[in-house]
Amino acid sequence: MTDAKELFDNQIKIQKLKDTIFAVNDQLTKAKKHGELSNLIAARSTPKSLHCLSMRLLEERISNEAKYTEDDDELTTRRLRDPTLYHYVIFSDNVLGASVVINSAVSNAKRPQKHVFHIVTDKMNYWAMKVWFKMRPPNNVSYIEVKSMDDFPVLKPSYVPLLQQLESDNKYKFIKHRIMLKHLRFYLPEMFPKLHRVLLLEDDVVVQKDLTPLFQLDMEGKVNAAVDTCSDFNQHYRDVMNFSHPLIKKKFDPETCAWAYGVNVFDLDAWRKLKCTEEYHHWQNENENHTLWKLWNLLTPGLIMFHKKTKILDKSWHVLGLGRDPSIGSDKVKKAAVIHYTGNMKPWLDVALNQYRDYWTKYVDYGMVFVQMCNFGH
């Protein structure tokens, strides 16, 4: 009778079903977390092929030191500071990523001789970058400058609050340069004092159209120009700022639209006039205990620094999400001036989304001997 009761008692059946569902949901949650962690590790770690490429380039420099001495002629030096040309800035420790950005921009420029590229990297990757662009310049008319972040005298702890904070805490000893490389974007006027306007590109973008119109854009007195992330990603200040903090709550509206890094036009004259760097320093000092934003978060200080100082670009200039969203339509991708592999599935990783990989590999220099030696697959 007891066995029969278990067979026909609906309450017992329902409870057993609930227990099974709960167990399966628990397994699914754990699997999702494990997958997210694996993707994050894959995205943040340096792939073996990229590490190989950097080492090969460094070995080339050591073996042929005389070939890579500083030899910029007077014309090149003048062009690198000429404010009438179109200046791009790329902060990167990824040699291949930076080369794809420049190759794609040059390939699609109508007048490449007017485009100048400034790459800023860390000390560890300086010579790898230097050797790459010496060996494989994208053409003979564009100008490329490679600098180490240590080459800028203004970037000292006495002037940079974040660097002072990092150096005072020993736990950041081995990552402080990587953090600072990301935050150098907040010092563009000091790093390029003779320039009036620059275009900041991330090292995980591909340029598909001529970007000259962005240098001729009427900024309407604004400092920054970028695409917003409200309509496509429903991203507002509330999603990226800590509104439980009284300073944030008092100063900002949580419903304000956020914008994206990746393709940003900066009017350096307006930046200097409105004292944006001083504003950043003020908020960075307030954030000494990292309660306003975390160290790796670049968007929140950017939103604060350029609040009410940002002009919104048409979305066709910058399409995001190719490193996380498999549902972006091919027409939208093809029509975009710049596509951006935001997310953990970067195009140089094995976990990249296959439907978007070819847009990036199109500009990889597979003819470069070290790329072949380091097993970068087509």
Structure description:
It is built from 18 helices and nine strands. By secondary structure, it is α/β, with parallel strands linked by helices.
Q: Which strand order do you get reading across the main beta sheet?
A: 3-2-1-4-7-6-8
- Note poorly predicted spans: none
Could you give the order of the helices and strands? Answer: HHHHEHEHEHHHEEHEHHEHHHEHEHH
The best one-word shape is globular
Number of helices: 18
Relative helix content: 40-55%
Distance between the termini: 68 Å
Strand proportion, as a percent range, falls in 5-15%
Backbone structural class: alpha/beta
> Average pLDDT, to the nearest integer?
91
Q: State the major sheet.
A: 7 strands, mixed
Strand count: 9
* Rg over C-alpha atoms, rounded to the nearest angstrom: 24 Å
Secondary structure layout:
Elements (H helix, E strand, L loop, with lengths): L1 H7 L1 H35 L3 H16 L10 H7 L5 E6 L3 H14 L6 E7 L4 H10 L7 E6 L12 H7 L8 H8 L4 H4 L5 E5 L3 E3 L4 H4 L8 E3 L10 H4 L5 H6 L11 E5 H6 L2 H11 L12 H7 L4 E3 L17 H6 L2 E3 L13 H8 L7 H5 L5
Parallel strand pairs: 1-2, 1-4, 2-3, 6-8
Antiparallel strand pairs: 4-7, 5-9, 6-7
Summarize this structure as a short list of keywords or feature phrases.
cell wall biogenesis/degradation, 11% strand, alpha/beta, 378 residues, polygalacturonate 4-alpha-galacturonosyltransferase activity, two-stranded antiparallel sheet
